[in-house]
Amino acid sequence: QVHLVESGGGLVQAGGSQTLSCAASGSIFRINAMGWYRQAPGKQRELVATIPSGGSTNYADSVKGRFTISRDNAENTEYLQMNSLKPEDTAVYYCHATIISSTRGSSGYWGQGTQVTVSS
Known about the structure:
Blueprint: E1 2-7, E2 10-13, E3 18-26, E4 28-39, E5 46-51, E6 58-59, E7 67-72, E8 77-82, E9 91-101, E10 105-110, E11 114-119
Parallel strand pairs: 2-11
Antiparallel strand pairs: 1-3, 3-8, 4-5, 4-9, 5-6, 7-8, 9-10, 9-11
């Protein structure tokens, strides 16, 4: 079985910074693309950023220049560094990973979600 466990999040003032982490564990053969999504109250879940196993990163226009996605392949962990946070960044943030496991082949997995609240 594969699990994604997020950490980070919480309350931060506008203009501040926060870092989210997401660690994958279990019967992992290889992790392909990883990413972060968010869902604000009353809104659909939206893409924040993605990072493939190789190649360039991708960001939503709303976070370009403020957020940075990265990954540590040795630790099966991805990160989201968020700077210059705005109240409109308030949402539950979810990590996602496409993982090839020894038991299920290639599947997508979600973290449990972590609340980020930006106060004005």
